[in-house]
Specification:
Helix content is 97%, strand content 0%. It is an all-alpha fold. The protein has a domain at 32-62.
Length: 62
Amino acid sequence: MKEVKQLNQDIEVVEKSVKLINLIEEYKNNIKKYIEYEVNILKNKAKTDVNRILKEEENAQK
């Protein structure tokens, strides 16, 4: 009987571990998406800044 109880506890631990691993994987993916989002914002800002500077230089030369 003790073996059955121990096996049930082991199964419970494994199930909880799998749930935790899945949550960690989901969290990792969300962090990756957030970083990609922030990088795109910075890229767009950089492009805007470069275009603004080029326009200013072009206007200054006129």
